[in-house]
Design brief:
Number of helices: 7
Bound molecules: zinc ion
CATH topology: Fumarylacetoacetate hydrolase, domain 2
Distance between the termini: 52 Å
Order of helices and strands: HEEEHHHEEEHEEEEEEEHEEEHEEE
Strand order of the largest sheet: 7-6-17-11-12-14-8
Strand content: 25-35%
Number of domains: 1
CATH superfamily: Fumarylacetoacetase-like, C-terminal domain
Largest sheet: 7 strands, mixed
Amino acid sequence: MPAAKLGRSGSKRQTTARVGSAAKAATNWTPRGGPQYGSAMRIGLGNLKGRASVVLGERVLDVERASAGRFSADPMAAVERWDAFVEWAHGLRTGEADTALDESHLGPPVPRPAKVFAIGLNYREHAKEAGLELPATPMVFTKFPTCLVGPRAAVVLSSAYVDWEVELVVVIGRGGDRIATDRALGHVAGYTIGQDISDRRLQFSDRPPQFSLGKSINTFGPIGPAIVPLDAFTDPNDLALTCDVAGESMQAARTSDMIFAVPELVAYLSRFCTLEPGDLIFTGTPSGVGSTRDPRRYLKEGEEIVSRIEGIGTMVNRCVAPRAAD
Ligand code: ZN
């Protein structure tokens, strides 16, 4: 993709600001067969206790207060004015009105998207492990927005067949329809991490299977820790992503192994649906999910799911049992 479209990367690429203790532990982590894991998020838009917040490494600023009201406290409003917001945020420096970031207070960085698309079978190795042919066009389903939770939220297990899927999540910044592939990244605000948590029993219970309900159970969409602007990545099309469960490495891949890259997904979806600011695209998961392991392996109460993407950071989601019916 043309580097010129990314704009302001420059010297900021070298910054190694990190977020939170879990990200610190990841500093020297290396994916299997891959190069050194890169830096965590340097700058991003987070949702701190419901308020739009700029995350600067391990510090955080309240958007409404730091901008003297130019931007409102609603995280959705910052996404809707993304270019102006990013330009303003890039001028911020830590040390004044900022406070230490406590990631346990972060909610989903996009709390109320109009649409949440998700893509099935978008990594070559994952298609192989599932025993399926490579799709000719993206396989699209939806996750209902009420499943979204923050990067440290608990995942409530709905059955004994709940699985993990670490995914790069695209946040649309500029809407449109019939978007050309070579202009598609211009419509992307940035990226965040997502877990497309899936109840495999429910996912495959219908004939023919329809995925949406089994992937939309409350808490089945952790996203975060923040939206990292596209221009903060050295190469936004080639990022290491991993998922560990209960301390064991389960998934490790690079987004460059996607069958349909982000620009193709944006262009494809916009052929049918008008994309709007804040819309999310879960871009598919690499190999290593529990349901294709031998023996099969599902999430258990008390286990932690640790999801990482290069240049974005880390999510840590603990699995809990469902509460008794009200
Ligand atoms: Zn998925």
